[in-house]
Amino acid sequence: MKAILALIVILFFGVTAIAQNVKTDTKVATIEMSVVLSTEVKVEKKIETTIDNTVARVYKFKNTRVKKALVFETKTAAKIA
Question: Whole-model pTM?
Fold first, then answer.
């Protein structure tokens, strides 16, 4: 009985959703723009050099600090008998 009632309710909501008049054909105003092709290429070679005297750490492998933090040992190791 529950299954039949649930089926009727689902069909009812489906039919009411389909039966609504929803206008989907909306016209959109289009704008036409022209395209200009240019073959000129400007190359500017300007290199700025700055002197920075800060020290940066360079690690041999990626995520060294993360791996070091994840692999830790407790001070008292539990012994299995």
Answer: 0.28
